[in-house]
Amino acid sequence: MTARYAEKLGVAAILTLPELYYRPNKVEELVDYVKQVAEAAPNTPILYYHHPKKSFVQLPMPEFVTAATKRIPNFKGIKFTSSNLSEAYSTLRNLKADQDLILASPTVLAGAAILGFKSATAGSFNLFPTQCRDIMSAVAMKHILIARSIQEKVTRAVDAIGQEGRIPKLKAVMKIVSGLDMGPPRLPMKPASKEDVHELEKLFQELGFLN
In a 3-state reduction of DSSP, which class is residue 166? Predict the structure, then answer.
């Protein structure tokens, strides 16, 4: 099993998706699956990767983390890829002090910071890392209007990338902001059109992300 091999390599933690072919339909089934992964690497922290739009596993995460904590000694939290901030906050409140929720939704970053979230990550953070850091810093200093202003820019950028053709656009924008060519997207996806790339570059310039 991959988890057992990862532990032998000395990885810091393991992030596991749910079973994607025979998907769990109950919280207990999801806990059973994550427990099996955790038992293969008993000395390594295990986190669950909640990404309902991609995995199609849409179970209540507050209930899941509570059950997983009781049954899995090395369960240490969750990567939460959803903009459902209400559920994310309820999930965070159900975690123990040595566990964490890593938020992976840049469009709710300011609100999450106000609610006390400390950890966040997302592929799109690579496009505007400074702005995401500044949102967290502004909230920490109680500069809420500043955080809100930056959040608006980040949200406009994320909305422009959208869900339709997201990966090709992410790759195109990465080249715009960093100069790094990330290569073509995997088939069956196609590279972003010249028109889309032009509009994205224009928007990122307008938002001040290319300065």
Answer: helix
